[in-house]
User: What shape does this take?
Amino acid sequence: MTSYLIKRARILGGEPTDLLLEDGVVSRVGQDLAAEGAEVVDADGLVALPGLVDLHTHLREPGREDAETVETGTRAAALGGFTAVHAMANTEPVADTAGVVEQVWRLGREAGHCDVFPVGAVTVGLQGERLAELGAMADSAARVRVFSDDGKCVSDAVLMRRALEYVKAFDGVVAQHAQEPRLTEDAQMNEGELSGRLGLRGWPAVAEEAIIARDCLLAAHVGSRLHICHVSTAGSVEIVRWAKSKGWDVTAEACPHHLILTDDLAATYDPIYKVNPPLRSAADVEALRAGLADGTIDIVATDHAPHPLEDKDCEWQAAAFGMLGLETALSIVQETMVEPGLLDWAGVAERLSYAPARIGRLEGHGRPLAEGEPANVVLYDPAVRREVDPAGLASLSRNTPYAGRELPGQVVATFLRGRPTVLDGKLA
Amino acid sequence: MNRHLLSTGDLSRDDAELILATAEELRSLADRPIKKLPALRGRTVVNLFFEDSTRTRISFEAAAKRLSADVINFSAKGSSLSKGESLKDTALTLEAMGADAVVVRHWASGAPHLLAHSAWVRSSVVNAGDGTHEHPTQALLDAFTLWRHLGSLDGRRVAIVGDILHSRVARSNALLLRTLGAEVTLVAPPTLLPVGVEGWDADTSYDLDSVLPKTDAVMMLRVQRERMNDAFFPTQREYSRRYGLDARRMGMLPEHTLVMHPGPMIRGMEITADVADSDRSVIVEQVTNGVAVRMAVLYLLLSGNESDTGRTPTTGTLQAGAPTTDLDGAAE
Amino acid sequence: MPAETKAPPAEDGRTVLDARDISRALTRIAHEILERNKGPEGLVLLGIPTGGVPLARRVAARIASVEGVDIPVGSLDVTMYRDDLRMRPARTLLPTDIPPGGIDGRTVVLVDDVLYSGRTIRAALDAMNDIGRPRTVRLAVLVDRGHRELPIRADFVGKNLPTSVAEKVTVRLEEIEGEDSVTISGGAATGEGESA
Assistant: This one.
């Protein structure tokens, strides 16, 4: 296997340092390293980060291969600097059995662009009625540890309680899509003055916050760990902060788009901005950034949600929820968190690699760039700026809300266990 | 004035007054033996209805035909559940047919906006009611009716009563009547007022009786019985008792106050039959005025938007031709 | 040519008719109308807005003072019948006011300030056609400046005014501008879009 000698990379934004990647591990870290036969990668000016881990990705396979496949989705992931993604369970069929999760896991291994860790459904068919065979999925080759009905909320309090309790047996975690269903029937956008003006059914913050509050209390009551998907409101941040202050084992994620986009974009009636949970107010965006900075929100997860053109090129109400995220996530984090001084690169590594790997109980991901650690590395150039061109994305879908927007930063190389998946900004 | 009519919020006071003044001139056409003007001869107006509304469609159809336009009615049914005919495909079809104006009624809020800003059609888009968003021509005909009876709307008080939350008529009226200088009070049970309504340029009240004595016009909105099932109010009886306009409440109105309703009415729910049929009621006149206002809108949007080179509409150029052109000898 | 918002001031050109000239011209027109019609019977005067309307009223007043009868006066807006609607920004509609007796079987005298290409009168004939069927239609104008583009002529002319196409004729009336005058201005520039 080829060795790679990375020259003068700034590990977590520090001083220029060399790294030697051999046999899947970081074999040496130091100044002026030399290695016979190793391929040299000039990383002058680049930031080295541990391979990113996404706890929330929709790869759409099986069932909606017209939107994304494991192959195309993991290409997008690699180009975004990810070495591991968690594939959400809302496929067709739903990933609610050992058979389906093993299929997705196997497809990921075959694609080889990044590791794919399937998320198992909490309830059969995401119907919110009966628990899926969580244990069988945990024991399968896919070793599922994260369970979620994402796209739907486990709204039944008893069922949620049981799920939280049950996954303790294999150190699993329930990732809740917090959306009180009755309060959000046919909801289209953040409820506020604008939703009233636009005549779009409002999606109140309380519909998210009420479920988060309930589930924090449930998790505390049964002594389980809880993860909250895509926190989008200032109130949710407050509740999570409160739960953490109690010492409860609650983690939370924020999506890149909720860190940068606001609900006034709905005034365009362009469904490219339709997402679940909806874009919120500028005050919510501020609160999310602050929460991510102080650690109340543990991680950034993309909620990469590909949709074919016909599901977005239509009336707002008829359009699908969701936006692409994998290939722009790191740039959005740079713009919203690093450049304003809310996070340093070490903080980025924590929020996008170490913490998500810990929550997903992944071994071999989210490790520091140190000798003997797995050689999962991203080389990132924070100095360049690029305009997002939907046609240039690796994802099969084009539903990026950033088309034409200039974003900072570019992933130059990604290494998965010492093997490049991306080099010179292109798939290797 | 814009090339499209999507929201009354896009109209300046000058725009709105031009539409009303034009409608006033066109209204007299109804009294003439030949109820037709040649202004839009050779133009094609498409009525694109994704939602049934016979009365609005007929009104637009009459307006277009009285201006000698060719009218194509296109009804593409579909609901938010069954997506039905795609807006995009329909729009591309209309574009291929060479429509000059598309009058669109749609169950989805924002669909006319989407159409106007898409690359799918080049024609003028007139919003004939979109979801729970707006219904600009209804508001214009309401304002026209008020203006004919009350004169200038500056400082006039108009109460809009009923299901504000789901009413596109209320949204369009609240914006337009403010533009024309009127003071608007939205009256509804708290459940039927939108979140954030305090940010609208209008007063709100939960108490109809306190509003009536100081209002110049009261506009009753239809309240669908289904709202009851969603717990917006307990029973029809309670709604009528608190927010319905009956003979007793009509007695609280000043002498000159007008009673309006955009139709279709649910007699016995928001308005009693005797009130609807009383001499204060201008509900039938609203229908007549609807044709004149829609003629004015089509005339103002469509004349002069064609350059010599063909169908490349100019934007934002609709303004009153100055009367003095008739004096300078050049324009004869 | 952009629509002007205000008539140019009178001193901005050569005055060809002053208030007394205009008054005399209108008196003469009133007499000619009566003579041609053999009296005031069946006459209806329709002014074409805006300038034609006060002129029609003045002619009617002169007829009243001569004959002692009030003849019906109205206005006829031709905007919707113009042949250049597609090329120009939408114009404000001006009042059409047909006298209560209507025009069927009457002798309608159309009154306008300036006769030029003839297109306005063509539009007026179309507009009248949709309102009723007069027995006879005649045309009275304060100024005929020539350059007809259609086979139309005036029956009663206050003043024939030879002009070049580049010149501009401005009629100012007491009721609208506060004074009576007809001026000619310009003439140096040529080829201005006098397409109406």
